[in-house]
Amino acid sequence: MVFAAPNQALARAEEVLGSDPSPLHASVAHQVIGIWQRDWGDMRIALDHLRRARDLAARAESADREADVLAALGVALVHAGRTRQGLAALERGVEVGSGHTRARVLFRRAYASWVLGHHRAALEDVRRAVPVLRQADDVIWTARALTLRATVHLALGAVERADADFTAAEALWDTTGQEHDKADAVESRGLAAYRSGNIPAALRLLDEAQERYAKLGTPMFMLNIRRCEVLMAAGLAPEALAEADAAIGVLDGIGGQSTRKAELLLAAARAARLAGDAHTAIARADMAVRLFAGQRRTWWETHARLVLIEARVAAGRGSGRLVADAAAVADRLASFGAPAAPEASLLAGRIALGLGWREDAQRHLEVAARSRLSGPPLARMTGWAAQALWARAVGSDRRVLEACRRGLDVLDDHRTTLGASELRARATAQGAELAGLAARASLASGGPRRLLVWSERWRATVLSAPPTRPPADPELLSGLTAFREIAARAEAARMEGRPVPTLEREQRRLEREIRSRTLHMRGDAPGDGYRFDPRRLLERLGDDVRLVELAVLDGRVQVLLCAQGRVRRFEGGLLADAEREAEHVQAGLRRLAHPGAEARLPVVEAAGRRLEELLLGPAAAQLGSGPVVVVPPGRLHRVPWALLPSLRERVFSVSPSASSWLRARETVPPPGGRQVLVRGPGLATGGAEVPELAGRHGSATVLEYDDARVPRVLAELDGAALAHIAAHGTFRADSPLFSALRMADGPLIVHDFERLDRSPYRIILSCCDTARFASVGADELLGLVTALLPLGTAGVVACSAPVNDEAVVPLMLTLHKGLGAGASMAEALRDARASLPGDSVHQATGWAFSAFGAA
Asked: Rounded CA gap, 680 and 692, in Å?
């Protein structure tokens, strides 16, 4: 009963002890309490009850009772870090027990062996236990044994064997009422989905297991560990670190299992390293190594040592000693049959290369490269990275590019399984090293044109296909509606000066729920095999249009100027200097949005000149007089391009990639030319341009006041030719897909836009911060504009900084006048800027807006 209804079992056991039971019955009751405390409470209390249960079993003179208790005690001692005592108790249980009971003890010893990382011993004990349990028709313990065997198979990389055992176990669980074991089975299927590369299914199953455990009132730290693994694989390392640290805090608070604490520390160390926090990774990994060593868990200790070495290398501590350490870890992992062995060999080879030890590097990289042809996607990518590194070491650019191409193809296939745009964007970080190696090799061997091809190979790839949209997910729709209502109530309370902590807590809960459901979506848009062709780009550019793609190599901006059938390369400044200058410009624009800051205007203009030197360098003098398309890297998304002197009076647009610009250029407008004007609440001017635009466009649909509610707005936007939205915009750096436009009934968020069948062909966002993005993954952007581009929008006008609402009105009216006369969005925006008064407020307003796409 302790694994069917844990809290009821605990209460019943305490009742038994209060009724003057016999030694036999008292032994059972103490064992139940001990198991409950062992798995969900305080280990000291657990050991006390289990020792009493053992002594009472001896008094009852029941060998099988004593064997059963010894098995439970042995597992508890192992979890408490007292490995030698725990194994001795389990060995004694095997000796004392017989028949059916002995098979149950063998299962527990197999479980302890799995915890300790002794996988072959675990498989041997399960092999001996399963036939006996089946013969006894013991459904529950047979299912447990099959589940354990599947978990061990997963640890050894045998995914197909694990799937077979999980399937057999699940069929047995369906015939029982063991609710905790059923939750554990769901968790195990989540682990199997993760190991087979299906991240969305893994997240969905682990969330389902968490809901089941919550109903039983049983915290499961193994679930936290597995969730951390999956979150890291999904590129969500900061979330994994937060989850691991929170679980460690809970575990310490209840005096829980020492073994689980060590595993959580290892998960936290991995997450910190992936999040770029090398010092936290070193601290967590060092603690994990010490705990695992004390627990005599060599398999786990070796994995923790791998993370510790990786973190030290990331902190800049490469040395000959670390090469030897990494090689020793690789050998030990290989002896265990651990899937992480190639990762350790790659690490040893990478450190050796950095030290110039070519023979050592070759030996280790050749071992790591063997994993490139089989196994899960990330393991194969490890192999291709090793292959590419060695090819670079021997000077074969051709082999470098081939290895990088093959490795990135593996990652592309993996990303198409992910439905959420956030996951697809973050997953690209796993190919950043391959992309960097390819860019260097392409420049050395093929010049600017080949560098352009590789820059495009790994730029804004998430925009190449629309995100997966759940056509019928009532729970997600309900969550979005509830989120909107709570957010609107919280906003109203803030404006009235009332406290909002309860509403904010509920809003955060709903955000987590919405995000969780979107992350569960599996990709349904396989790659279309598209490959960027520079000849096609140059043909579409013609003789007049210049496309400037900014690539970054070793921290320096490389300017690729595409025009008149050629690709030329120029060198700009350091990316870090450009980022700092862009931040200074943003601060200046914020000041200029308010009257009285005229003295800042020359300072901001001077910063624009410095930005041009850093970003365009000598290429600025080669732009000609025609239109320009700027393709910046993700980290430069905050640059107000209209401030650069060579672009200030020119027709120019911005695009996340050359491929994205080509798709926008070839997007056909929807028939009918339907126009939609939306005015949200709370604007200083009341969205003054909307009534005047409505008068000009008599047939336009106007949504304002109570009509400007999210469901109605989305319905009208779907498939429109032109949409103009005047509404307060908010950008969420912490969660960019919750960036929003304020409507009458609450926020219209990016998740809402992703449900459109086709977003408006052209859309104008006359509000602050709508062109702000979060740079994630290798070179991806998450935000409102990038959500629209894959959904059918060919052109967007949006703002990258806070602006003066009143100064926006004349800019927007002139912009629409140009569009009505047949101009493109970039042409109309250029002319609208030129028509503004020369004061600092209006000038800053014009600079803050950019045209995106090609419409």
From this structure: 15
Residue indicated by tokens 């969305």:
200
The type of residue at 271 is A
How far is 652 from 825, CA to CA, in rounded Å? 9
Give yes or no for residue 156 having a pLDDT over 90. no
- Examine the pLDDT at 671 and tell me if it is beyond 70: yes
Residue scoring higher pLDDT (344 or 455): 344
The Cβ of residue 53 has, within 10 Å, a number of other Cβ atoms equal to 27
Dist. CA 103–CA 127, nearest whole Å: 10
- Distance (Å, whole) CA 687 – CA 682: 9
Tokens of 611: 């930005």
- Distance, in Å, from the CA atom of 829 to the CA atom of 540, rounded to the nearest integer, reads 22
Q: State the greatest distance between any 2 C-alpha atoms of the chain, in Å, as a whole number.
A: 99
What is the C-alpha separation between 626 and 644, in angstroms, rounded?
Answer: 16
d(Cα 27, Cα 42) in Å, to the nearest integer?
19
Residue whose structure tokens are 């369906």: 174
For residue 631 the two structure tokens come to 């393709």
Q: Identify the pLDDT of residue 287.
A: 97
Q: Which residues are paired to 748 by β-bridges?
A: 741
Dihedral of alpha carbons 770, 774, 779, 781, sign:
negative
Region of 422 on the Ramachandran plot (φ > 0 left; ψ -120 to 50 alpha; else beta): alpha
Identify whether the C-beta of residue 311 lies closer than 8 Å to the C-beta of residue 282. Answer: yes
How confident is the prediction for the chain on average, in pLDDT?
Answer: 89
| Residue 278 CA from chain centroid, whole number | 19
Helix (H, G, I), strand (E, B) or coil at 559: strand
Nearest to 255 by CA among 114, 48, 116, 108: 48
For 743, phi then psi, to 5°, come to -105, 180
Average pLDDT, stretch 131-146? 95
Instruction: Give 620-646 pLDDT, tens digit per residue.
Output: 999 989 999 999 988 888 899 999 999
The residue whose two tokens read 């936007």 is 717
The length of the chain is 855
How many distinct helices (H) and strands (E) make up the chain?
36, 16
Top pLDDT among 391 and 783 is at 391
Q: Give the tens place of pLDDT for each residue, 189-200.
A: 898 888 877 888
Dihedral sign for Cα atoms in the order 837, 843, 849, 850: positive
pLDDT tens, residue by residue, 735-765: 888 888 999 999 998 888 888 888 999 999 9
CA distances (Å), origin 802, targets 159, 845, 847:
52, 9, 11
Neighbouring-strand partners of residue 418? 522
Distances (CA, A) of 317 to 243, 326, 353, 666: 28, 13, 14, 50
Q: Are 139 and 175 spatial neighbours (Cβ–Cβ below 8 Å)?
A: yes
Buried b / exposed e across 806-819, counting CB within 10 Å, b at 16+? ebbbbbbbbbbbbb
pTM: 0.79
CA-closest candidate to residue 429, choices 400, 471, 458, 403: 458
The H or E element that residue 607 is part of is: helix 601-615
CB 225 within 8 A of CB 267: yes
3-state secondary structure of 783: strand
Whether pLDDT at 429 is above 70: yes
Q: What is the side-by-side order of every strand in the sheet holding 628-631? A: 566-574, 556-563, 546-553, 628-631, 652-654, 849-853, 795-799, 762-765, 722-726, 675-679, 701-704
**pLDDT higher than 80, residue 465:** no
Q: How far apart are CA 855 and CA 852, in angstroms?
A: 8
Neighbours of 570 (CB within 10 A): 18
The single-letter code of the amino acid at 333 is L
Dihedral sign computed on CA atoms, order 215, 221, 226, 227: positive
First to last CA, the chain: 66
- SS3 state at 631: strand
**Residue 721 — left, alpha, or beta (φ > 0 → left; ψ -120 to 50 → alpha)?**
alpha
Parallel/antiparallel/unpaired status of strands 740-743 and 746-749: antiparallel
